[in-house]
Amino acid sequence: LDIYFVNGAASVPETGPPNQLYRNEGNGKFREVTSESGAGDTGFGVAVAAADIDADGDIDLFLANNGPDVLLINQGDGTFRRGGAEYGIADTNMAGGAAFGDYDRDGLPELYVSNYVDVAEFVEGGRGGPFCKWKGMTVGCGPRGLTGDPDRFYRNVGGRFEEASDEVGITLSDASYGLGILFVDLTADGLPDIYVANDSLANFFYVNEGDGTFSEEGLMRGVAYSGDGLEQAGMGVDAADVDGDGDYDLVVSNFSHDHTSLYLNRGEGFFTDVSYPSGIGKSTYFPLTWGARFLDLDSDGAVDLFLVNGHIY
Q1: In this predicted model, what pLDDT tens digit does every residue of 44-79 receive, in sequence order?
Q2: Contact 60, 50 (CB under 8 A)
Q3: By the 8 A CB rule, do 175 and 148 touch?
Q4: Which among 113, 112, 72, 111 is positioned nearest to 93, based on CA atoms?
């Protein structure tokens, strides 16, 4: 496996250092090949998603930016060709995350892009956001009061994309602040569903109906709010079979002074919040946790949880 790092910038709409691609040399070492591969991008990077979008056997990359998003088309010789509008990707919003999934099982992956807020509110001449006091400091109050940008669902048609959000039922995201995304089968029916972690608002769980549409069912399935019915500030998200019962469980990382949430799947995509009984709730209350990843770190066959913490102040 190779490694691709996304880089940001000091502020929107400035450019930053290029993203970095490290090629696995197969001997336990990596070599930085950004320039020779053409994989660098200096936009304000937020996330990267990887999939073979054109079914040619090579992994392509989608770069979600605060600004114009970018496709990097794998040429099969270790290099990438930059794409965008000609592939149906022309979004210039403030992206929060991206994920591929083959929702119609035709062998071509679709793309879901979460968007955060109207980028014009963060650049010179924009409306600006409200300010609050936090531990004696003047800081942004968070996304509430700012204009949310709708998420985007792109259907893959022969290796090109068509924006189809309304058509497939992705219609509730206009006022949301989307960040982390999962595009996996959470209901164990063989169809990939979509889960979106939203900042300061209820999270979305779009259930794949198998007829080309989704139904948002986060509340009824127990993953829109915390176990005590509160909105959280979702950031990172991942899924794995934590309890060994054969279906995906969920973890959602949140802002500081709120715990990371662990939801156990009770079957067919109905969940119970077990954050505190599991021990995760108490130990994760104070940090701002940007990212979460399930993996077996000690090779004992049990799923472990790695959390990435930071802050914005």
Answers
A1: 899 999 999 999 999 999 999 988 899 999 999 999
A2: yes
A3: yes
A4: 113
